[in-house]
Amino acid sequence: QVQLVTSGGDLVQAGGSLRLSCVASGITFNINAMGWYRQAPGKQRELVATISASGTTNYADSVKGRFTISRDDAKNTVYLQMNTLKFEDTGVYYCNLKGYSDGGYRYDSWGQGTQVTVSS
Fold first, then answer.
1. Fewest beta carbons within 10 Å, which of 36, 61, 72, 119?
2. How far apart are CA 118 and CA 116, in angstroms?
3. DSSP state of 15
4. pLDDT tens digits, 38-61
5. 55-84 b/e (C-beta count within 10 Å ≥ 16 → b)
6. Over 90: is that where the pLDDT of 74 sits?
């Protein structure tokens, strides 16, 4: 039973910082990548940042230079450090895990989401 518990969202003023955490449990397969997505009111869910099993990261253009994705394998946790927050960063942030079994079965798991609200 895969579970991704997401936390860290809050109300913050523009220019402030937050760190989101996603703790994974019940992982019995190989992890290909983990990432963060967000969904703003009235908009579709969009990719924010990903980190592959090898440590390669990528970011949406809108957050480059401001957000950093990282992980702590010992704690089974992936983080999203968000600095210089803008009003347009407001939304529900979701943790995502993609993996595969040795037999080739694909897994795609999501956390419950955490609300980030940036006031202007």
1. 61
2. 7
3. T
4. 999 899 999 999 999 999 999 999
5. eeeebeeebeeebbbebeeeeebbbbebee
6. no
Cβ-based burial of 48 (10 A; exposed 0-12, middle 13-18, buried ≥19): buried
Write down the H helix ranges in 15-103. none
The answer to whether the beta carbons of residues 82 and 93 sit under 8 Å apart is no
pLDDT value at 73 more than 90: no
- Cα gap 78→35, rounded to integer Å: 8
Q: Where are the beta strands (DSSP E) in 1-120?
A: 3-7, 11-13, 18-25, 30-39, 46-52, 57-59, 67-72, 77-82, 91-100, 106-110, 114-119
What Cα–Cα distance (Å) separates residue 83 from each residue in 63, 78, 118? 9, 16, 11
Of 119, 107, 101, the C-alpha closest to 12 is: 119
Read off the tokens for 71.
């992980």
Q: Say yes or no to pLDDT of 1 above 90.
A: no
